[in-house]
Amino acid sequence: MIRFDRVTKVFAGSSAPAVENLSLEIPAGEIVVLVGPSGCGKTTSLKMINRLVEPNRGRIEVAGRDVRSVSAPRLRQSIGYVIQRVGLFPHRTVAQNIETVPRLLSWEPARIRRRVEELATLTGLDHHLLGRYPSQLSGGQQQRVGVARALASDPPVLLMDEPFGAVDPIIRARLQDELLALQARLRKTIVLVTHDIDEAIKLGDRVALMQQGGHLEQYGTPAELLSSPASRFVEEFLGADRGLVRLDLAQVGQLSLQTVPIPDGTPRLGPQHGLIEALRLILSAPAKAAAVYDNDNYLGLLTLERIVEAVLDRTQPIPVKTP
């Protein structure tokens, strides 16, 4: 777990705090996203975890230990760090970039080679790219190298500062999906900074929405923010279509369905599909319905009326993912 206890940071020459009296607990094994407008202190908060920025007041703990109880270089070797434009060493090959921290930790060469190959496979990086230089890679490939390098020493904590902001939307969506798949296997404690609320809702087990001046406006699961915004600022930042975003957090299989006869020409869906995707399919179907199957097991018929009922039923809110 990572814990902020009344942390404040005021930069030299500034009269206002970048972060003020921040208290926050980040559970182990979860993705927590810091999101908010420019100047809200989200990147400053992230950098205080690995002491790239030192707070003026307050205490930050990782796994119950004050981060100031160890030297900054040693602390950073135990925490993975990924930034927006990757920050790869241009004069080193992909493999040499990934090896950076294990070499600093004096790992045996054979162990380092095994770890590089393991991480290439884990992050979906073609092994033939290991001998290339960063300039010879696409933006998406460079980002995968950055993640592999951050994971090289198998740190329990991974910090990610706008990790997908420099790639195009298609690659960005793919990298987001890959991060979620990776997290399902590794269960790292991940703190991710973004200015994109859609990215925060998609990736975060919990979301910390920050306001200018480093104030924490609301902290909770995506469902909690979308269903119960704590302030007008939260409502406006989430956007007018937050109901649709909330709808897409739910999966088809989370709704109760009736096993009624299937009309001819009805499309099929899996229980893992989001309700927005189901809604698009149903609206284009002749019977305005979709048959839900788990492999070959028929679970029931999802109709347009059933989705509308789920949206309007405030006594039994749409179930969504929870940590």
Characterise this structure.
The protein has helices at residues 42-49, 72-77, 94-98, 100-104, 109-122, 139-151, 169-186, 197-203, 222-227, 232-238, 242-249, 275-283, 304-312; strands at residues 2-9, 19-26, 31-35, 57-62, 65-66, 79-83, 157-161, 189-194, 206-211, 215-220, 268-269, 289-294, 297-303. Helix 5 packs across helix 6. It is built from 13 helices and 13 strands. It starts with a strand and ends in an 11-residue tail after the last helix. The strands form 3 sheets. The protein has a 6-stranded mixed beta sheet with strand order 6-7-8-3-9-10, with helices on both faces. Strand 11, helix 12 and strand 12 (289-294) form a beta-alpha-beta unit. The chain folds into 2 domains: 2-245, P-loop containing nucleotide triphosphate hydrolases (Rossmann fold, 3-Layer(aba) Sandwich); 250-312, Roll (CBS-domain). Helix content is 36%, strand content 22%. The chain is of the alpha/beta class and 323 residues long. The model has no long low-confidence stretch (mean pLDDT 87). It is globular, with a radius of gyration of 22 Å.
Quick overview:
The protein has 323 residues and is of the alpha/beta class. The chain has helices spanning 42-49, 72-77, 94-98, 100-104, 109-122, 139-151, 169-186, 197-203, 222-227, 232-238, 242-249, 275-283, 304-312, and strands spanning 2-9, 19-26, 31-35, 57-62, 65-66, 79-83, 157-161, 189-194, 206-211, 215-220, 268-269, 289-294, 297-303. Helix 5 (109-122) crosses helix 6 (139-151).
